[in-house]
Amino acid sequence: MNVAILGAQWGDEGKGKIVDLLTPHFSLVARYQGGHNAGHTVYVHRAKFILRLIPAGILHPGITCVIGNGVVIDPQALFAEVDELARNGVDIDDRIVISDKAHLILPYHRDLDLLSEARRGERKIGTTSRGIGPAYEDKIARRGIRVCDLADPAGLEQNVRDNVTARNRLVQDSTMDWKPVLDQMLKHAERMKPWIRDVSVLLTDAMRDGKSILFEGAQGTLLDIDHGTYPYVTSSNASIGGVCTGLGVPPKAIGRVLGVVKAYTTRVGEGPFPTELSGAMGARLRESGSEYGAVTGRPRRCGWYDAVAVRYAARLNGLDGLALTKLDVLDGLETIRICTGYRAGSRTIANFPADTGQLAQCEPIYESISGWDAPTKGLRRFDQLPAAARKYIARLEEVSGVPAAIVSTGSERDDVLRIADFGLRIAD
Ligand code: IMP
């Protein structure tokens, strides 16, 4: 059965670890959106790997790792990642497949990202400045450059020339030369060539042959371009619909959907965050959870678990199970709070609001639950958990409306409690 793993909060939920954990049950792992704004961290025997573009399944030998058409690819970032993996002894070359329809991030996209943020001033999004938004803008405006265009040097030259000229018009005093950009792309084309395929055909053939696929999401549902806290979102569909559009597979290909959530909430970049904790408790979560961006190093904003947001993600994605991460970060807290609803003035808000201004006005309705003293870090059996931690998990399941299939208790690959079999026979 094919399974989609996606973020059910604002990203950074720990998807990398969960993908790595479940990869041995699959033959292929396929990324469907985003770009190197993602930073999927995996620890294997204390060695730390940060995957940006390449699916986190790459750390398991023999698994084919697919980058779908919904992903935007910065070739330089891709090769840097491939080289780094190779230096760390991960054999990759015959295991990477890149969609011929994926769009490319060119150097001018990075400049335009910075420029657009500067122009927004106080209303900036807080992007990762990797050129993600401008590359997707070009895609939607039908002037983007795709991987398959690398095979047509004359067409590529025309596109690069037009796009660099358009960029020079946008950026004051800019005289970027299109020729070096083209030369660089042609060089990248040579290296990328062996990996380029029709991903829809590859995945369909794999399914026909009885192989199963793990679909890997990046960012999180609340950063989705359509369903997230717009405009403070990324520029792709991080929610379930992105699997079909970003890989060329039908909805029927998705067997189960696993939503990754932290035992609390974080957000990086700007935008409303109802349960944000600005004082000492926020700092406590940041320090014990090492909540600093894997890509940019920015400190993440931290807050309590927001069940309104997770219920919203559960509805949008049809979540079958939760993978609850970083439970151990809450070790030692006397009291833990869970946001079960929102209030705006005297009104109770039942659904996650579309309007960012309204969301910013929402006050969380909290319930308090006892914490636990005994450490949960590294525990691998559910019955070893302190009773209060088990109660906390049960309450999160209730208020989120989704059962927990997996609970992660530390950064290492095996620091995990497998609760439900999730159709994969993953239970102990
Ligand atoms: P962009 O994707 O670089 O355009 O950034 C848009 C918003 O999404 C910003 O608030 C970023 O901080 C956020 N964002 C993008 N990628 C990630 C991620 O992988 N984790 C968490 N936040 C992200």
Report on the architecture of this protein.
It is a single chain. The chain has helices at 15-22, 75-87, 107-120, 132-140, 153-170, 178-192, 199-208, 241-247, 280-288, 307-317, 356-361, 387-400, and strands spanning 3-7, 28-31, 40-44, 47-51, 64-67, 72-73, 96-99, 103-104, 196-197, 213-216, 256-262, 265-267, 301-303, 305-306, 321-325, 335-344, 347-349, 363-370, 404-408, 416-418. With 428 residues, it is α/β, with parallel strands linked by helices. The chain folds into 3 domains: 3-99 and 196-256, 3-Layer(aba) Sandwich (Adenylosuccinate Synthetase, Chain A, domain 1); 103-192, Orthogonal Bundle (Adenylosuccinate Synthetase, subunit A, domain 2); 261-418, Adenylosuccinate Synthetase, subunit A, domain 3 (Adenylosuccinate Synthetase, Chain A, domain 3, Alpha-Beta Complex). A 10-stranded mixed sheet has the order 9-7-5-2-10-1-11-15-19-20, sandwiched between helices. Strands 14, 16, 17 and 18 form a 4-stranded mixed sheet that branches. Strands 3-4 form a two-stranded antiparallel ribbon. Helix 3 packs across helix 4 and helix 5 crosses helix 6 (178-192). The two termini are 19 Å apart. Bound molecules: inosinic acid. Residues 11-12, 37-39, 125-128, 130, 132-133, 218-219, 223, 232, 234-235, 268-269 line the site of inosinic acid.
